[in-house]
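User: C-alpha cells in, sequence out, please.
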C-alpha cells in the first residue's frame, strides 16, 4: 500500500504561481512513477505530468508544458508540482498518483487539493 497526501492548493490570480506538494508513505520503494492529474468541474480527470521515482524521465501534458515543472525528492518521499503563469483554465482539483513496478496503472491516489485561478 502507498499513501499519498497533497497540499499547497489555493486561490491565485491569473499569471500567478503555486507549488503543490505530495507526501508519499508506505511501500515507497515499490514506486515506479509519480504523477499529477487534475479534474475540473464537469470534466474528466486528465494527466498533467509524471516523473520516474528513481529520477529523470519527465513527461508533461501539452497544455502545461513550459509553465509547470514536476520534481521529486525520493529521499524525503516527496513530489512537487511548480505551477507558473497560471490560467483560469488550470482551475481544478489536483491529484497525486503513484504507479508501482510491474503494474501499468496508477492504483494509489491522494485526496486532492483545490487550485482556483481567478481572471
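Assistant: Sequence out:
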Amino acid at each position: 500500500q502507498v499513501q499519498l497526501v497533497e497540499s499547497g492548493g489555493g486561490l491565485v490570480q491569473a499569471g500567478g504561481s503555486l507549488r503543490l506538494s505530495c507526501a508519499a508513505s508506505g511501500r515507497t520503494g515499490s514506486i515506479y512513477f509519480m504523477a499529477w492529474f487534475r479534474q475540473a468541474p464537469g470534466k474528466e480527470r486528465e494527466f498533467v505530468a509524471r516523473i520516474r521515482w528513481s529520477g529523470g524521465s519527465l513527461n508533461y501534458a501539452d497544455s502545461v508544458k513550459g509553465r509547470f515543472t514536476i520534481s521529486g525528492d525520493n529521499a524525503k518521499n516527496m513530489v512537487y508540482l511548480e505551477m507558473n503563469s497560471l490560467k483560469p483554465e488550470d482551475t481544478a482539483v489536483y491529484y497525486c498518483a503513484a504507479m508501482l513496478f510491474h503494474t501499468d496503472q496508477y492504483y494509489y491516489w491522494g485526496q486532492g487539493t483545490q487550485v482556483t485561478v481567478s481572471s
